[in-house]
Design brief:
The chain is an alpha+beta fold. It has twelve helices and seven strands. A five-stranded mixed beta sheet has the order 5-4-3-6-7. Strand 4 and strand 5 form a beta hairpin. Helix 3 crosses helix 8 and helix 8 crosses helix 9. The protein is globular. The protein starts with 10 loop residues before the first helix and ends in a 15-residue tail after the last helix.
Length: 232
């Protein structure tokens, strides 16, 4: 990719020239969060086409930010951060702290992509804090004009939490009626489960033990303890 430079003698602007192409930082953040395969990165980033993600990954590889690792035995491909990208962690952390403190909460949780949200929701469930049996949770979002409005999370001992967008052939243990904004606010530590319930934006029904222990099995944001965080 040919980058149009700012023409300034400034290290900050030189960093911008490398990083500010749309989706570059979200892709880096998603790989940092643990995704390494193409489809997982796309689910985590959300509103990006496969063609554009492929283009960005190639550009990031050419710029030295990521490395493509091919497995000849399986035909699989993984993308991992280089030392150059890992060195950005303190900067990305500082950006996140700044955002939690200074970006208005309503702005921070608006326009969330539903696919990216439920992928993050899946990753936020701590299966070991749930009853050690199969647990099925149904989330229904009341927002209009969503690509889909219902998903199921399936947790089983010794396995990663599974995400389903079609009805699984199991009884549901927890029913959640909510909105995209409400769950986004909880996952971003801009609100809490109890506050969303009290305000009538979140309704929980089903297994009382699972409902009571939601503060244990739903992981807080890594940036939940920021001093002065702006809440909804």
């Amino acid at each position: 990719m040919e980058v149009k430079t700012y023409g300034l003698i400034c290290p900050i602007t030189k960093a911008c020239e490398l990083l500010e192409s749309r989706w570059t930082i979200p892709i880096l953040a998603e790989i940092w969060s643990g995704s390494s395969r193409f489809n997982d990165i796309r689910r985590g980033v959300g509103n990006i086409s496969s063609a554009l993600l492929s283009k960005r990954l190639k550009e990031m590889q050419a710029n030295g930010l990521i490395e493509r690792v091919d497995d000849p035995a399986t035909g699989g491909v993984e993308y991992v951060r280089t030392e150059m990208a890992v060195a950005l962690e303190p900067t990305l952390n500082s950006m996140a702290v700044w955002a939690q403190r200074f970006i208005d909460a309503d702005v921070a949780v608006s326009d969330t992509n539903i696919a990216a949200l439920i992928w993050k929701l899946r990753r936020s469930v701590i299966a070991t804090e749930l009853p050690q049996r199969r647990v099925v949770m149904r989330f229904h979002f009341s927002d209009p004009n969503l690509d889909f409005d219902t998903c199921w999370l399936l947790a089983q001992p010794g396995s990663e939490v599974e995400l389903c967008t079609s009805v699984p052939d199991f009884d549901v243990d927890l029913f959640v009626e909510t909105t995209v904004k409400s769950i986004s606010a909880i996952l971003m530590a801009r609100s809490t489960v109890s506050r969303e319930v009290d305000e009538g934006r979140l309704f929980l029904s089903g297994d009382a033990r699972i409902i009571k222990s939601i503060g244990k099995w739903l992981r807080e944001s890594d940036y939940a303890d920021i001093e002065g965080i702006a809440t909804v």
